[in-house]
Amino acid sequence: xxxxxxxxxxxxxxxxxxxxxxxxxxxxxxxxxxxxxxxxxxxxxxxxxxxxxxxxxxxxxxxxxxxxxxxxxxxxxxxxxxxxxxxxxxxxxxxxxxxxxxxxxxxxxxxxxxxxxxxxxxxxxxxxxxxxxxxxxxxxxxxxxxxx
Amino acid sequence: xxxxxxxxxxxxxxxxxxxxxxxxxxxxxxxxxxxxxxxxxxxxxxxxxxxxxxxxxxxxxxxxxxxxxxxxxxxxxxxxxxxxxxxxxxxxxxxxxxxxxxxxxxxxxxxxxxxxxxxxxxxxxxxxxxxxxxxxxxxxxxxxxxxxxxxxxxxxxxxxxxxxxxxxxxxxxxxxxxxxxxxxxxxxxxxxxxxxxxxxxxxxxxxxxxxxxxxxxxxxxxxxxxxxxxxxxxxxxxxxxxxxxxxxxxxxxxxxxxxxxxxxxxxxxxxxxxxxxxxxxxxxxxxxxxxxxxxxxx
Lengths: 148, 298
Prior knowledge:
Protein name (chain A): Cytochrome c
Shape of chain B: globular
Distance between the termini of chain B: 58 Å
Order of helices and strands of chain B: HHHEEHHHHHHEEHHH
Keywords (chain A): Electron transport, Heme, Iron, Metal-binding, Signal, Transport
Radius of gyration of chain A: 20 Å
Number of strands of chain A: 0
Structural class of chain A: mainly alpha
Pfam families (chain A): Cytochrom_C_2
Largest sheet of chain B: 2 strands, antiparallel
Strand order of the largest sheet of chain B: 1-2
Signal peptide (chain A): 1-21
Order of helices and strands of chain A: HHHHHH
Oligomer: heterodimer
Number of helices of chain B: 12
Number of helices of chain A: 6
Organism (chain A): Meridianimarinicoccus marinus
């Protein structure tokens, strides 16, 4: 009876911790990387939704979204300087095997996003901006991010 | 004694028959007689078939992707295959090949000398290619820069290094039947040609049998990544809930409906798909959406 009671008490706690460990990244630098990627995801989302017509086109908002991608892309090389990996992290060793190439790829994204930030004036400018930014994202993901 | 002697003769005869039968048969010249290739149309075939994705040098970017010098490694359960030089160099590439040689390689998996290729080269998909498309492809390949980089031997151990064994494998897995019946819908037919023949999507997205053939009962239901890390996703409607327009957008930009950007080998596929016409991307999406749902392996 006592065993059952303690089980009833301990089991949810254990499960809770397990669930937490699956959703939470504890390494602060990896956590920061994930937040930066999430921020870029939000910004490109704005551009894509405007492209598809799911969101009204607003030049200022689109430019701000592109500028945010450029700013966060500039932070990427420093965030990945330390060779930190975890179970949740999808960073591949390739990053540190050729860190210069990785940094160049992050810079290519910064350039593409900066260009977009100055060139998006009309809805028709969104397509090329999304393509160029997407090309820079995928060029890096191709070699440096693990598939799920 | 005489029994042993007769037994030996029978064994030798069987081995001889086996040796003769298992040889690869190049395509006869007469099969492609009268065909002339258009290099402009050939570039589209080249792009859709993803030739450069595997045959360009490892890590090649930009213009260097047009030099098909080979050298990329493809690990598998059977060993590591290394893509050969298929540039127009007459000695180290395939510059000395004629149209029948190329058509035999693509549709039969056989070299001009009658040697079997390994199915890391997706001839089981290319076997569906129209001969006119192969003529166009040949005309385009001939315009690419030559490379004198020697092809490297595959790193494949016994017994998989016996190429004659591919004869038996081909009996099991080389078929001119399409996987998905599409009726006479021209859009789905085009999508099927792009997916099943040219882009050879099933090579990564379909799980394989113990012998390394396509498990067509689980067509496009996802598979372990051959590199050993991660999984290639199930793209049947059982797992992929994207609309056709989502698939088209992904093939054009690399962005999923959640605005995630693709990675891995799919990036090469997207770079190719983005160069195709909007109609072709729509046809691919229609085909994917029409796949029968198959649950992912547990």
